[in-house]
Amino acid sequence: MNKFYSLDIKEINPLTLDSVEIKFDIPSDISEKFKFKAGQYITIKNNINGEEIRRSYSLCSNPNTNEIAVGVKRVDGGKMSTFLTKEIKIGDILEVMLPTGNFIFEGGNVVAICAGSGITPILSMMKSSNSAFTLIYGNKTIESSMFYNEIRDINSDNHFIFSKEEVEGCFHSRINDSVIETVLQGDYKNRGFYICGPGELIDNTEKFLIKNGVKTSDIFFERFTLVKKKNVVDKSKTDEIICNITVIMDG
Ligand SMILES: Cc1cc2nc3c(=O)[nH]c(=O)nc-3n(C[C@H](O)[C@H](O)[C@H](O)COP(=O)(O)OP(=O)(O)OC[C@H]3O[C@@H](n4cnc5c(N)ncnc54)[C@H](O)[C@@H]3O)c2cc1C
């Protein structure tokens, strides 16, 4: 179950000053095992300064291709994210677990709300979606936004929110109730809502959606970090929680 596979790094693409996309080479004899659903993640293991470190990274590639790729944003002082964004090179081998997770794209008319590195599972969903897809994506600036150009090339209803920069046609704000209402214009019915980002974004957005009549069964979310508040953790919807940290992901 917890088996790790040794995978070659095939490609490393710088995304922003502090983030990269990493693509793995998957040998044909295990490519079936690495099939995944949009929204799922892999766990990477590495020995860093004599300590075994394991961290999860959501797949950002299209599940309908054989590509396995992740987008990693460096966290100040972060062991694995610093290693992955600064030290690896093409041809290095990383120990990787098979894709897993319950934050799974179910298609249909979707609204995705995310910030910072929370874009990664959402990008995979966008790449594989065949129907209406509305994206609300928050960052500090264009320059700090992972996959900004790639997303603009996807034919979806994209809304960018920048907290530290004024950009024509974009919101100059953080993601909040008013941004969501301005984008959705009261159209909350028969849509699936996928949220990924800081805990506060998930909690506030979920409350706002429920207030607007969205059923909890239509709200899906992925937390990249441990949540301490007991009343907001829905075990049926969250994935394996790896570490106890404070998250600031909008830049
Ligand atoms: C299911 C899942 C999917 C994930 N997908 C992605 C992904 O696609 N891309 C991605 O970049 N990350 C993702 N993460 C987060 C990732 O697993 C690591 O937690 C992150 O890279 C930090 O690990 P680290 O070893 O560098 O930091 P650590 O060494 O664990 O932490 C170092 C310091 O940084 C703080 N810190 C850690 N993380 C954050 C943060 N996000 N914001 C602010 N401070 C922090 C800690 O409190 C600590 O003080 C995901 C997590 C989960 C559980």
UniProtKB/TrEMBL annotation:
Stretches assigned to coiled coil: none
Database matches in Pfam families: FAD_binding_6, NAD_binding_1
Cofactor: FAD
PANTHER family associated with the record: 1,2-PHENYLACETYL-COA EPOXIDASE, SUBUNIT E, NADH OXIDOREDUCTASE HCR
Organism this protein belongs to: marine metagenome
Record bears the keyword Iron: yes
Residues covered by the FAD-binding FR-type domain: 2-106
Alphabetical UniProt keywords: 2Fe-2S, FAD, Flavoprotein, Iron, Iron-sulfur, Metal-binding, Oxidoreductase
Name by which UniProt lists this protein: FAD-binding FR-type domain-containing protein
PROSITE patterns: FAD_FR
InterPro entries tied to this protein: Cbr1-like_FAD-bd_dom, FAD-bd_FR_type, FNR_nucleotide-bd, MRET, OxRdtase_FAD/NAD-bd, Riboflavin_synthase-like_b-brl
GO MF annotation list: 2 iron, 2 sulfur cluster binding; flavin adenine dinucleotide binding; metal ion binding; oxidoreductase activity
Keyword presence, Membrane: no
